[in-house]
Amino acid sequence: MPHLAVFPKGYMDDLCVHKTMTLLDWIELASELDVEGLEFYDGFFESFEPEYLDRVRKALDAKRLAMPMLCFSPDFTQPDPDARQREIERTQRGIELSARLGGVTCRVLSGQARPEVERADGVRWTVECIRALLPHAERHGIVLAMENHYKDGYWLYREFAQRMDVFLEIVDQIDSPWFRVNYDPSNALVAGDDPIELLHAVKTRVVSMHASDRYLSTGNLDDLKQADGTLGYVSTLKHGVIGEGLNDYDAIFSALAGVGFDGWVSIEDGENGMDDLRASVAFLREKMRKHFPASSA
C-alpha cells in the first residue's frame, strides 16, 4: 500500500536561500500533517556532519516520521568530463545521505538543457553517469529514482530530459533493480505531454511519485506553448491544492494500483501555506482509500 509524504514546495527559499526556516523547524511544522514521511532536498541541510545529521534523524524519530526520499539534482549534461565525474561523486554523497536518514530512494535527473548540448550527447552522458552510480546505490540499499522533471529551481536552464521522448530514451537504456522512476504528472503537463500516456509507459518502473496539481489562471495549455514545444513555468500556470487542477488522480491511482504500486507519494504543494497542504493531504487520503483499499491510514 502506498505511503504519504510531503515536500515543502512553498518553503524552498526559506530553507535554502533566506535561511529563515531550519530543517528542524520544518520537521516540527510538518508533524501537524497526516503524513508518514517527509521528503528532503540536500539544500535544506545546515551541515552534513554526523552530529547534525543525527539531530535531524532524532527529530524525525521523535515525530514518528520517515525520510523516504531525497530530492537530489545531479547535472550530468555538462560537456566537461571532469565536471560530470564531480557530479557522480556528489550524487554518491547524496546516496549516502539518503541511506543515513533511512531513505528508500535518491532522485536523479539528466541535467540542464544547455543550448550547446546535442540530444545524443546528453542522453549518452546521462546514461553513463547513472550506470556508474548503480554499484554505489546497491551498496547502500538506495534506489535511484529518475524524475520526469521540469527544472531545478536553482538551475539556469530547464531539464534536458523534460520531454517524454527524451526521458524514455534514457530510462529504457538502464536495466537495474536499483534504477526506477519518480513520476510527476504536473511536470508532464508543463512539458506539454500527456501525464497518463507517460504513466502507462513507465508504470511498472515507478518507485515513487510527486503529487501536485496545476491550474491555469487564464487561457489554456495551447496558449503557453513555447518555440520548442514546451510549456514551462509561466505566470498563468499555478500550483494549487491537489484535486483542483488539471491532473486526473483517479486515472493516475487506478493505473498505479493496477501494477501493485506500494511506494511513496510525496506532496509538492504549500505555496499558499499550510492550509493548502492540509487540503491536499485530505484529497489524497480519500483517493488512496478508494484505489488502494488496504491503505486506510
Describe the protein in words.
It is a single chain. By secondary structure, the protein is an alpha/beta fold. It has a single domain, classed as Divalent-metal-dependent TIM barrel enzymes (TIM Barrel, Alpha-Beta Barrel), CATH 3.20.20.150. Helix content is 40%, strand content 15%. It is built from ten helices and eleven strands. The chain has a nine-stranded parallel beta sheet with strand order 2-1-11-8-7-6-5-4-3. A two-stranded antiparallel sheet has the order 9-10. Helix 4 (81-100) packs parallel to helix 5 (119-140). The longest helix is centred in the middle third of the chain and has 22 residues, at 119-140. The model has no long low-confidence stretch (mean pLDDT 92).
Class of secondary structure makeup: alpha/beta
Order of helices and strands: EHHEEHEHEHEHEHHEEEHEH
Sheet having the most strands: 9 strands, parallel
Please name the CATH architecture.
Alpha-Beta Barrel
